[in-house]
From TrEMBL:
4Fe-4S Mo/W bis-MGD-type domain location: 192-248
Keywords: 4Fe-4S, Iron, Iron-sulfur, Metal-binding, NAD, Translocase
Known catalytic reactions: a ubiquinone + NADH + 5 H(+)(in) = a ubiquinol + NAD(+) + 4 H(+)(out)
Family statement: Belongs to the complex I 75 kDa subunit family.
Protein name, UniProt field: NADH-ubiquinone oxidoreductase 75 kDa subunit, mitochondrial
SUPFAM superfamilies for this protein: 2Fe-2S ferredoxin-like, Formate dehydrogenase/DMSO reductase, domains 1-3
This protein's record includes keyword Translocase: yes
Lineage, uppermost ranks: Eukaryota, Metazoa, Ecdysozoa, Arthropoda, Hexapoda
Gene3D superfamilies from the UniProt entry: 3.10.20.740, 3.30.200.210, 3.40.50.740
């Protein structure tokens, strides 16, 4: 029979046990008439006869020690080890039920060592215990239940994994030991609807399954596609789905007297159509966001072209001149993703695939581990989870490789399948065209030297935006964001463009129309906001970085009055008197096929025609688009990262950005790069916590990993989001005399208020 401690069974039962032990000690004392042994248990003195165990001595003074196998009328076994206690000057805990007392001992029954020992014993007892407690006859009077609650650990042990694919462990676990925390207790699989789709958080185009119920996406799971993502997805793709229901635009809005107000669709389209009237032919421009689908891209392109506009830009600018050869080969990952691991020598230029494309990074790691792949990196030195040779940060190294003046030349030229992976974000620099041209020349030289198979391509461009390749295929890129700023168009369309770092001050006399799904930065500066659908709410075409056309599936209907983007543009064209020759999705795709037939050949890769193909770190992994920025789960991920990195700096010192010609490890923000809605942020001074500062601007910041910060309130007019490449940011107050460093203490989500303490 198992005995129960006093703290669990109540005074009556425990008292009976204690009285039995005390009576036994008293009887023994009378019979033997020996000299008593004095010891201290939890600093309480007690005298007992020689041969008394520690457990019996503790019971004499009313201290209960947990046990399972001990019974006062049975022989001592000492099997369960639950009665471990700490004795001073002993090397390790001892079993109280089997250890006779000694004079002068100091026993601790509730020390940290004792508690940890009991928790460990309880964990071992429970590790193989059947989970039948709800139907067990002993339930409610079980010593194991009671003692596990009283003396066991109150939490499970989890180890942080700094890995952007850690969520895949959930899929590997065949039981419920490892589960998705956001999905826990939400639904059962048979209650959800599964829809095949693709991930658009990066340019890989991982195949996914969207599980939804009652108009809400509950979780994202991977879908097997050996040619793209195998059976893995990134953590951002898996866990950012809770951002699909937050910060959503559910009604059209029109700015009236400086404030956005909800209106009906007819009123919003009429207001937008009026803004398009009497606009000069060359004064209409488009900036396409990173999540735009091919259907909305082509419809908006046709509308703007018929209005006389030719300025079609993407958020991430891309050089179009390069080396003057086949353009499509100059912006594709020309080898298939599955072939990346076959390369025996890889040169990474201005890219960090661990963040920009985690699933391509796993292919590289696989090639390194199993194929002895030699990898070189030009750019900032980063952790890629595998060894590589760091060649430096200067673009001049590319010219050294072309001229056979670098030791890594031997590695590249001795390779049978050399590969160059060039980061698209690097090419957005002012000298991006020169870097692309030099890389194309290097790729051509390697291709001619190695005599690789015609199917093997040396030059490969790694994009980070899901919409970029389709946009370039459809004719976008004729202008850049900076060129549009300089041209000052009369009408500017923002197609989900929230990361172009533009402000209302950049376009003081421009009529701005925003089409998108979330109330992000683009919506805050628009004159008309047209509520669009998210990628899980529409059937849309996307082309990944290797040129593979795929499509998303509509898992649910758009919320409120939101509609698919291409339908919004088509309706706007009708209100504006512009005739577009399509009315349904099939006809829109026919139009796409006229421009780029490969965009509607889903699942296929259209290869580039020319064989001799001619950094900054990725933006913060967990928050790179409107969906992930609206995700509380992603905010918690950012917060966990910051807890390891954030620093509080004393005093004031100016930390200026690097201006060297090397590939940048940081960036520069002008005071106008961030649009502040000051009344949505709480600014509290160290010296006077009741004061509010009204004028703030960036001066400089320390070089570190990119971090995105989000602040928003219930009104779209009081929403702020900005990104910077720093963990400690130097701010200057124009309205006070003192200057201080700040520490960003916390992140916000949809239910928490943000504060900056300075």
């Amino acid at each position: 029979m198992l005995r129960v401690p006093q703290v669990l069974r109540g005074a009556q039962t425990a008292g009976l046990s204690s009285s039995r032990l005390a009576k036994s000690l008293s009887t023994s004392s009378v019979c033997q008439q020996k000299e008593l042994v004095e010891l201290f248990i939890d600093d309480q003195p007690v005298q007992v006869p020689p041969g008394t165990t520690v457990l019996q001595a503790a019971a004499k003074i009313g201290i209960e020690i947990p046990r399972f196998c001990y019974h006062e009328r049975l022989a001592v076994a000492g099997n369960c080890r639950m009665c471990l206690v700490e004795i001073e000057k002993q090397l390790k805990p001892v079993a109280a039920c089997a250890m006779p007392v000694m004079k002068g001992w100091r026993v601790k029954t509730n020390s940290d060592l004792t508690r940890r020992a009991r928790e460990g014993v309880m964990e071992f007892l429970l590790v193989n215990h059947p989970l039948d407690c709800p139907i067990c006859d002993q339930g409610g009077e079980c010593d194991l239940q009671d003692q596990s609650m009283a003396f066991g650990s109150d939490r499970s042990r989890f180890t942080d994994i700094d890995f952007k694919l850690s969520g895949n462990i959930i899929d590997l676990c065949p039981v419920g030991a490892l589960t998705s925390k956001p999905y826990a207790f939400v639904a059962r699989p048979w209650e959800t609807r599964r829809t095949d789709s693709i991930d658009i958080s990066d340019a890989v185009g991982s195949n996914i399954v969207v599980s939804s119920r009652t108009g809400e996406v509950l979780r994202i799971l991977p879908r097997v596609n050996e040619e793209v993502n195998e059976e893995w997805i990134s953590d951002k793709a898996r866990f950012a789905c809770d951002g699909l229901k937050r910060q959503r635009l559910i009604t059209p809005m029109v700015r009236t007297q400086g404030k956005l107000e909800n209106v009906e669709w007819e009123s919003a389209l009429m207001a937008a159509a009026q803004g398009l009237q009497n606009v000069p032919k060359d004064k209409t421009a488009v900036i396409a966001g990173k999540l735009a689908d091919a259907e909305s891209l082509v419809v908006l392109k046709d509308l703007v072209n018929k209005l006389g506009g030719e300025a079609l830009a993407t958020e991430q600018s891309y050089p179009t001149d390069g080396a003057g050869i086949d353009l499509r080969s100059s912006y594709l990952l020309n080898n298939k993703i599955q072939n990346v691991e076959e390369a025996d020598a890889v040169l990474l230029i201005g890219t960090n695939p661990r963040y920009e494309a985690p699933l391509i990074n796993t292919r590289l790691r696989k090639g390194y581990l199993h194929g002895e792949q030699n990898i070189g990196v030009i750019g900032p030195k980063v952790d890629l989870t595998y060894q590589y040779q760091h060649l430096g940060q200067s673009p001049e190294i590319i010219n050294q490789l072309i001229n056979n003046q670098h030791p890594f030349n031997d590695t590249l030229k001795n390779a049978k399948k050399p590969m160059i992976i060039l980061g698209a974000e690097l090419l957005a620099r002012a000298d991006g065209a020169k870097i692309l041209s030099a890389t194309q020349e290097l790729a051509k030289a390697l291709g001619d030297h190695t005599k690789a198979s015609p199917d093997w391509k040396v030059l490969n461009i790694l994009h980070t935006n899901a919409s970029q390749v389709a946009a370039l295929d459809l004719g976008y890129g004729t202008s850049t964001v900076s060129q549009i700023k300089q041209s000052q168009p009369k009408v500017l369309f923002l197609l989900g463009a929230d990361d172009s770092n533009i402000t209302r001050e950049d376009f003081p006399n421009t009529f701005i129309v925003y089409i998108g799904s979330h109330g992000d930065r683009g919506a805050t500066i628009a004159d008309v906001v047209l509520a669009g659908a998210a990628y899980t709410e529409k059937t849309g075409s996307y082309v990944n970085t290797e040129g593979r056309a795929q499509q998303t599936g509509a898992a649910l209907t758009p919320p409120g009055m939101a509609r698919p983007d291409w339908k919004i543009v088509r309706a706007l064209a009708e209100f504006s008197g512009v005739d577009l020759p399509y009315d349904n999705l099939s006809e829109v795709r026919d139009r796409i096929a006229e421009i780029a037939p490969h965009l509607v050949r889903y699942g296929e890769v259209e290869p580039a025609n020319f064989f001799a193909q001619a950094l900054e770190l990725s933006r913060q992994f967990f928050m790179t688009d409107v969906v992930s920025r609206a995700s509380p789960t992603m905010a918690k991920c950012i917060q966990a990262v910051l807890k390891q990195r954030i620093q509080l700096l004393d005093g004031w010192s100016s930390v200026s950005s690097s201006t060297s010609p090397e590939l940048p490890s940081d960036s520069t923000f002008s005071p106008r790069a961030v649009s502040f809605c000051l009344y949505s942020i709480s600014l509290v001074s160290w010296s006077d916590r009741s004061s509010r500062r009204s004028s703030w601007s960036f001066l400089s910041f320390s070089s570190s990993s990119l971090v995105s910060f989000n602040f928003f309130s219930s009104s779209i007019d009081t929403w702020l989001s900005f990104s910077c490449r720093a963990t400690t940011i130097d701010l200057y107050s124009e309205s006070c005399d003192s200057k201080s460093w700040i520490l960003l203490l916390d992140f916000c989500n949809s239910s928490e208020e943000s504060s900056i303490f300075i």
